[in-house]
Amino acid sequence: MIGEKIKSLRTDKKMSISELAEKAGVAKSYLSSIERNIQINPSIQFIEKISKVLGVSVNELIRDKKKNEPEELDEEWLKIVQEAMESGVTKEQFKEYLEFNKWRSNRR
């Protein structure tokens, strides 16, 4: 839930709830109710203010990431995929390589 994520990011940055509320220009009581999941649907304006102070994107704050969900592609992965495409590797060839690699890993 978004409240838990805000609280986690805030504590990671060693900020008090008062400090975050003040820097973001939001009511401390409202922020507290969000963090405790009493209020569960904050406005986009609230989320934008909080995300800016916490130094994360709005998407990162609102996204409900599952434990085993893969990370988003970073710049290096994007370059690798682009390079493979430019070199003529087809999707099918890439899938075959992945299947072979899984098979090889399972044999060890």
TrEMBL record:
Residues 64-102 form the Sin domain. SUPFAM superfamilies: lambda repressor-like DNA-binding domains (SSF47413), SinR repressor dimerisation domain-like (SSF47406). Keywords: DNA-binding. GO terms for cellular component: cytosol. Residues 6-61 form the HTH cro/C1-type domain. One of its GO terms (molecular function) is DNA-binding transcription factor activity. This is Helix-turn-helix domain-containing protein. It comes from Virgibacillus salarius. The lineage of its organism: Bacteria, Bacillati, Bacillota, Bacilli, Bacillales.
